[in-house]
TrEMBL record:
Keywords: Oxidoreductase. It comes from the Bacteria. Residues 54-306 form the Gfo/Idh/MocA-like oxidoreductase bacterial type C-terminal domain. InterPro entries: Gfo/Idh/MocA-like_OxRdtase_N, Gfo/Idh/MocA_oxidrdct_glycsds, Gfo/Idh/MocA_OxRdtase_bact_C, NAD(P)-bd_dom_sf. The lineage of its organism: Bacteria, Pseudomonadati, Bacteroidota, Cytophagia, Cytophagales. This is Putative NADH-dependent dehydrogenase. The keyword Oxidoreductase applies. Residues 1-42 form the Gfo/Idh/MocA-like oxidoreductase N-terminal domain. GO terms for molecular function: nucleotide binding; oxidoreductase activity. It comes from Cyclobacterium qasimii M12-11B.
Length: 306
């Protein structure tokens, strides 16, 4: 829909996650670039309000990271202490029996480009997120909310990790299951760790020179007083209407939004193949892994195309 809107010359306010696969995201990004649309992705934690369980605005974290007080590289842990425990409930079921399609539901249209599977109510409604054909569980549905601000304050809006590792049971080919940990590593050594069990009492950010905890607390003595001498982060364009009127690129757009959605989709790919994956952030493909690369561009059921 976003790519079609771009080709029709429409400016776009797109719901997260931006796309279900890396390949779809690349096509949306290219369409917006080609047609000069203003694009906003609907997750706002990089520029507005508190960041879930952190009890502070992301701009404060960005300022601290940019100051260099924590050192480099940084390790960011997203877990229960940062509001990540919702993800335990977004799993699918196996062995579902076929059910009659409700007369008010156009099931073929609901499926869209997804493969045709016999109807069962658990594959639709709010629980559809637990099935690989449509989503990727809690990480697929909400992961971009958590990962996008991390990408922003680490300064990674124009790149992607070079490696993703998973600690998880083998996933069912149709139903999304649980997982314990996903670790992303960037070329410079920065890491993002998703704690899927809620057991890690880790600081939110750990660097060679100090740590940042929930509530903007740190083990750096007089951290906030020292931080006051540093400049504020560069202001962001956060008014979508103004961006449309004045043709200004929105803060979270088709480019950096694609990158934070790629974080989500890299993690999901590693879960599905259940192994460590190396990634090329320029070519946007996994290195020497045919099975994982098949998940980048997945078949679409006719007559759907992008």
């Amino acid at each position: 829909m976003a790519a079609d809107a771009a080709r029709e010359g429409k400016d776009i306010w797109c719901e997260k996650p931006m796309t279900r696969t890396i390949g779809e995201g690349k096509k949306v990004m290219e369409a917006v670039k080609q047609h000069g649309n203003i694009f906003r992705l609907n997750t706002w934690f990089r520029f507005d309000s508190n960041f879930y369980g952190m009890n502070t605005e992301v701009k404060n974290i960005k300022k601290l990271v940019d100051s260099g007080m924590l050192g480099w590289p940084l390790k960011v842990t997203v877990g229960k202490l940062t509001g990540f425990d919702w993800k335990f409930y977004w799993v699918g079921k196996t062995g579902l029996n076929e059910m009659p399609i409700p007369k008010e539901l156009d099931y073929d249209r609901w499926l869209g480009p997804a493969p045709y599977k016999p109807y069962n109510e658990h594959r639709t409604h709010g629980t559809f997120r637990g099935y690989w054909d449509y989503d990727g569980g809690g990480l697929g549905d909400m992961g971009q909310h958590y990962l996008d601000p991390v990408q922003y304050f680490l300064g990674k809006d124009n790149t992607s990790p070079v490696k993703v590792e998973v600690d998880a049971p083998q996933q069912h080919p149709e139903a999304v299951g649980t997982w314990r940990k996903i670790t992303y590593t960037y070329e410079d050594g920065c890491q993002i760790i998703l704690d899927g069990e809620g057991t890690t009492e880790a600081p939110y950010i750990a660097g060679p020179n100090g740590k940042l905890y929930r509530g903007f607390k740190s083990d750096i003595p007089n951290m906030e007083r020292k931080l006051a001498q540093f400049p504020e982060p560069t202001p962001q364009v956060t008014d979508f209407v103004d961006a449309v009127k004045n043709r200004k690129k929105f803060a979270l757009n088709e480019q950096n939004g694609f990158r934070s959605c790629t974080l989500v989709n890299m993690g999901l790919a590693a879960l599905r193949v259940n192994r460590t994956l190396n990634f090329d952030p320029v070519k946007l493909e996994f290195i020497n892994d045919e099975g994982a690369n098949r998940l980048i561009n997945q078949p679409m059921r006719a007559p759907y195309t992008i």
